[in-house]
Amino acid sequence: MKPRVSLQDSALRSGNFSLRIDPVRSEDAGLYEAQVKYNSEVHTCHVELGVITVTLSQSNPVVENELLLMSCNSSYRASLTETCWFHNGHLGPTSRTFCSSPGALSILRPAMSDAGSWRCQLRYSDNKIISATYNLQILGFDGPTNPVVYAAAGSAA
Known about the structure:
- With 157 residues, the protein is an all-beta fold.
- Helix content is 3%, strand content 48%.
- InterPro entries: Ig-like_dom, Ig-like_dom_sf, Ig-like_fold.
């Protein structure tokens, strides 16, 4: 996993043996074990890392008006019962046309207004809720709706 993992050397002296993984990948999910030996004592702890991923059907930034599929998946083992999508903190869909399937969201004609923070929230059969946030960028035109612009002679336009 090198060079994505590190220990905080300065924190070791205070007893913090945290492992930092940056960036986390979906294949990093699983059970981790830490062993700390101090004199003749051995201390062990186990931590399970769950990973949730948001993926796009096209690269980010997304081109305006081209079909977009956003998928949300998790390493959690229970059965997925509900997927909710929030745009800039508000529950979607909005007045625009969005189609939702388990873990995925289709935006038929993405517009500049769809840019921003998207959060998928997954609820499982054991009522566990996990979520992830993705910053969506839209490549398009965010100018006047009327394509005619008037400028005074001698001025800049």
